[in-house]
Amino acid sequence: MTKADGPSVAIGIGERYRDVVSDRWPAIVVPQHDELLSSWVHRLAYANGVAPRSFARVLGLSPRMWSASLDLRLPADIARLLHAHTGLSLRKLSVMPMTSSPLRPLLLPLRSDGHRGSSTWLQFCPRCLADDAQPYFRRRWRFATQVSCLIHGCGLRDRCPSCASRIAPFDQVELVPQHFCAGCGFDLRRAPNTVVRAPARRLDRCINDICRLEAITGSLTRGNLVQRLLDIPAAAGIYPTSNLISLSTAARIRCMERLAEQPVGWLTIDDDVVVAYRRRLILSAGGHAPLIALIVTKLERRGQRHLPTKRVANTDACT
User: Fold this and answer.
1) Which is it for the CA torsion 54, 56, 60, 63, positive or negative?
2) What is the C-alpha to C-alpha distance for residues 156 and 134, in angstroms, rounded to an integer?
3) How high is the pLDDT of residue 295?
4) pLDDT averaged per 10 residues, the chain (length 319)
5) In the chain, what are the domain boundaries?
6) What are the residues whose beta carbons fall under 8 Å from the beta carbon of 27, sequence distance 6 or more?
7) With CB atoms counted within 10 Å of each terminal CB, which end of the chain scores lower, N or C?
8) Residue 300: what pLDDT?
């Protein structure tokens, strides 16, 4: 299919879709680990031969950032429709949006403007997309605190490197996978790597580990960690009048690199001494996983020191 005839074919299918398909849709797509609801819906649309912008009408939605909005709130009628046509349980659908996340204030905002210095709603790692059998967008890429890939170590991107437009698969009018730019058709898997210095990657990993841990323990809602993270630009001394979610990924990487050169007192001080101590442990170890590995190693060494020694038989008595 050529670029020229793509939109007409996709829109034609989309307009007839309710009449042609009954009950389960022909192609069923399984959500991937940590996949955004919007990403899953885009893959579902593509698998069933409908471009994302046309699929908005299938769900009875207006085309303006329709799927990105579902990440924040999934209306009950849309959930029932998706359940009926895909077989995905309502329970699974209910946990895919990020509605009740205590980290929601750190989500990148849904913006319609195209200013290059401002944030866009979604980031991506080109190498992750290239590694995927079916490229998909992760939930963690929606957070302003995430600026580097935890797997590949490269910086995330929030714009197409070819045309500098935001990542907008919800606006795609052609029947192509979501990792192709809706503005110019560039394959996002081919985007060049963004270099992030090692100390900044380490700080990035630690901040996200701290956030996840405190979200699980409930201490996130009792303290002021979220506000401190929003104030990272001021703490870094680069963008003192901006908050974190208003900046582009490139600007947030600069903030992390500057903060990585400074003492971390701005992050470790807390009214709860246990929370403060836990943060210091994670920061000193370089993340939650290295901390767990360190603890396990120490426990193993302690256990080995307390193992009973084998008694050597006295051979003199036998002679």
Assistant:
1) negative
2) 19
3) 62
4) 42 47 83 97 97 96 94 97 96 94 93 71 97 97 96 96 95 97 97 96 94 87 89 94 94 96 88 88 84 63 56 45
5) 6-190, 198-303
6) 44, 47, 48
7) C
8) 58
* Count of other CB atoms within 10 angstroms of residue 4: 8
In angstroms, the CA 122 to CA 249 distance is: 10
Q: Residue 285's Cα: distance from chain center in Å? A: 23
C-alpha Rg value of the chain to the nearest Å? 24
| Location of structure tokens 């996983």 | 289
Which pLDDT score is estimated for 309? 53
Asked whether the beta carbons of 177 and 233 are under 8 A apart, the reply is no
Q: Would you say how long the chain is, in residues?
A: 319
User: In 177-188, which positions are buried (b, 16+ CB within 10 angstroms) versus exposed (e)?
Assistant: bbbbbbbeebbb
Of 196, 170, 179, 189, the closest CA to residue 249 belongs to 196
Q: Quote the pLDDT of residue 319.
A: 39
The amino acid at residue 68 is A
Location of structure tokens 């401190």: 228
